[in-house]
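Good morning,

Both structures are done.
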Amino acid sequence: MRIAMAVVAIFVAGGASAGREAQLAFTRSDHAWAMRSDGGGQHRLPIRTLPAQSPDGKWLAWWTSSGAQSRLLVARSDWGGTRELARYGFQPCFAPQWSPDSRRISYVVDCDIDLARVFVIDRDGSRRHELRARKWNLGGEWSPDGRGLLLCSASPSTPWWFYVVDARTFALRVVPRFHLGLGGHFRWTWAPDGRTAFVETETRLWRLDTKTGRSQELSLGLKAQSVSVSPDGHWIAYQANPGPSDDWEIVVSHPDGSGFKQLTDNRVQDVAPHWSPDGSQIAFASGPNNKSQIYVMNADGSRRRNLSHSSAFDASPVWVRGL
């Protein structure tokens, strides 16, 4: 499907790097798997959910569930030294997130917005602290310099506002002007500059200045989801769809919306793009609803190739090191 997009700048007031070889982790039929970047060496990991790997590549964090109990675990990247950090009687919906120095983890408890809580904890299980601005709280994404976390919070009588939380003192600074209505899908991610965040809902995508609250909508005329920012911050990739169908395609643009380019064009779903650590490739999932596969392509859309080649449902690719 060919996507046409007129980009208009509207300002509203209101993983793996140097060291071990980059690999891809992904889900296959409700289990976590990994493979080399050429598709070889496919192997099942000893856990069901995808682990979050620390920026230094030395640690893993993941949720495991049994019955009504969910546990947050951490281990070395060789799976040794497993430690339980938290245990709750809820089902988790959000992956844990590492601080840039690989010493702390933020995590969200529960899927129900009325029960969701956001915490920060040290890797050894000490110094747990809850992040809270209003009644409902989501997020806890670490800024690239590790000095702050981005929290989204609302109450029954207010919309969702963003807050930057000081990672040392936990003081709250509200992001002015910009807010979201209650309900629906929210997701956001930092740009490498530590000031810009990309905020998406079920259908819309914004670039947000977290200091001034100035925002630019990037998704004019499109549905947009699953933003991934290139390591150098010069490009963003996301899945886009101009109509009511599920025919998603992978597109890229500069953070201000310029340089828009469609990278895929077919009749199946191309979703969940993820930049390689060196910024030269983009991994994504592609296929009909019942048979998604893991693909990779060059950053310009060339050399698109199937890596997983399975008869199963493969999804959610992320770049990792040495699993």
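Second structure follows.
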Amino acid sequence: MGAVSWRAAAMAGVTLALVGDGRGRKGCPTATEGTRTKAKAHGGRKGGNTAPKAAKASKTAKTKTGAPVGRDGSKKAVVMGMLANGATLAEVMAATHWQAHSVRGFLSTATKKQGIKIESTRNKAGERFYRIAK
């Protein structure tokens, strides 16, 4: 049991010595590899030598009037197009396949984050009617 076995670690190319101590075998780094830092042993994941992240590009395009619009064919673009002329909650739900609370949440977010004003009224049938205020 006192014999020493050598093998090469496949992941980092570190040579390990398997030493028998009577209680089991333990892998110990060799003297030349024992001084490596944890960051270097794991491919530099924890070092400060990483390049700074680039700034993210803006995701929303703006029209000439400053009102944000979505990508062509996106649900945001569909809803914003419908709100330009006015639409009921049921119409927006049918066009986007969203539930009522999702439509109301989108409209709330649009007013806060995109800086547009949305008017909400009831039509003659008693349905909620939304449109972008002018």
